[in-house]
Amino acid sequence: MPTTIDKYAYYQNSVQSPDVDSQFLQRVYTSLRGKEPVTLREDFCAAFALCCEWAKLGSDKKAIGVDLDEEPLEYGKKNYLSQLTPAQQKRVTVLPQNVLSPDMPHADIIAALNFSFMGFKTRPLLKKYFENAYKTLNADGLLIIDCFGGPASMEPNESESEYDDFSYFWDQDTFDPITNEGMFYIHYQPKGKKKIEKVFTYDWRLWGIPELKDLMDEVGFKNVHFYWEGTDEDGEGDGNYTKTNKGENCDSWVAYVVGEK
Ligand SMILES: C[S@@+](CC[C@H](N)C(=O)[O-])C[C@H]1O[C@@H](n2cnc3c(N)ncnc32)[C@H](O)[C@@H]1O
Q: Which of 3, 47, 61, 249 is the most buried (most CB within 10 A)?
């Protein structure tokens, strides 16, 4: 019998830190705007774990998750939304919708995390997304996205990380330097069982930070800021991101790009 896993639970354990992310989003908004954000729209939200953490940050906090795919949305309702208090649950809504739809709800922060916008592989398409985000941000709103890069992300390689009861594999299967497109996969291997290949598949274009800034400028964002990760004593990323205009040319990096309406 083939091994079955709870792929969204594995994904949350290995890829996401929605509690840390929600606090980061709040900190960025507060420091740039000098006031507290109220509404978060989580685009490409999948099981909307971030929306659920956002609702825990305060009794005024509201979150809207948007994703095309009903499967992760249903998973999130059963497994994450149900863990919130009734009052918190009322402040989280989800929309099974395309983030390019013209009638998207307004928000103080629009967050598109874990690189999901990289599915928009042409400039016109990504521009359309940024335009739509700009239009639907409240006054003083912020678009917050993350991106990754560095020489190691531009060549085929596979890395393994061990968790309590499984291993996580990030597989950069292909990379084309002409288009900057790559095929990326997540595989999982439950302890003592066979590896399950291609649990998640990402067909992405790796967008560079200057390209993202140019596009944000072009659609009207007033300022664009960059948040870079600090390093620990072993020279590894320490998970603390601070605003800077100078990146460090590491083998692989993750950074946040923030557009101010
Ligand atoms: C990488 S996953 C989600 C990552 C999640 N935001 C996180 O932080 O882990 C990408 C999600 O984007 C959704 N998606 C892709 N294109 C979309 C679109 N045009 N509109 C809405 N959702 C989309 C997919 O259904 C998938 O759930």
A: 47
Strand partners, 221: none
pTM over 0.90, yes/no: yes
Nearest CA to ligand 1 atom 9: 114
| Structural domains of the chain in order of their starting residue, each with its CATH number | 7-148+206-260 (3.40.50.150), 151-204 (no CATH)
- Find out whether the beta carbon of 16 lies less than 6 Å from any atom of ligand 1: yes
Q: To the nearest 5 percent, what fractions of the chain are helix, strand and coil?
A: 30, 35, 30
Dig out the tokens for 155 from the structure. 């060549």
Output the CA 101–ligand 1 centroid distance in Å. Answer: 14
Ligand 1 and 129: CB distance under 6 A: no
**Mean pLDDT split into 10-residue runs, the chain, 261 residues:** 86 94 98 98 98 98 98 98 98 98 96 97 98 97 97 92 95 96 96 95 97 98 96 86 93 96 97
Q: Is 22 in the pocket of ligand 1 (CB under 6 A)?
A: no
